[in-house]
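Duplicate of earlier report; Putative N-formylglutamate amidohydrolase input re-posted below.
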Amino acid sequence: MQDVYREIAGDSASGLMLIADHASNRVPEDIDLGVHPSILDKHVAVDIGVDRLSELVTEALGCPAIIANISRLVVDLHREHDNPAATPVHSDGHHVPANAALDEVTRAARMDRFWHPYHGRASTMIDMFAPQMLFTLHSFTPQLETRNDEARPWHAGILYNQDDRAPRIALPKLKALGLHVGDNEPYSGRELNATMNLHAEARGLPYLAIEVRNDLIADEEGARKWAEWLVPVIAETRDALS
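Output:
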């Protein structure tokens, strides 16, 4: 369903499936958010680097994936459907006029067009492929524009809510690579874990929610380097859970 997501083919034998909520800055032609086009290249609109990283990782692992094909400013798919932040009015100091103008009916229509098909398909794919472990890829900015005095020094972070089975395996593996890895940093999965709460924790399915600092994966070289690091960590974590 190209308006909402794209799928990457994979083999259920991989035991894995990727869900990538923020991998696109695309805004459908019939939606005018009222923001300057340059905003769509910022982290408020897209997880920079994740689209390419997702392709490299899933190819190496041979696993299926569902990749969002809309900007998080259209609908933030990594929010609960009834969370007002799913149609963000403000994001890191940037105002989104069209979202501020949504009423209850037009907001529900936006969610029906994007959020429900995306998460419905993700659920169907999990049923089809029956993965041993889910994983998700995100990226974070080195500094928030509204908190430019607060540096985020982590190279990557592993986020989780209640189920920490996979994180406890993956964290030391990433640290062994010499990386500065956040344990529920740069923000906590106990506060924001919407997609994995819905598709993993609710099913009792182990998962890895991986955040990579976006300046490290913004170009092809960086994405390839991080894919080379992440692929064995993801695979070894899956195997250790068996």
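The first strand starts at residue 5 and ends at 8.

Merging into the original ticket.
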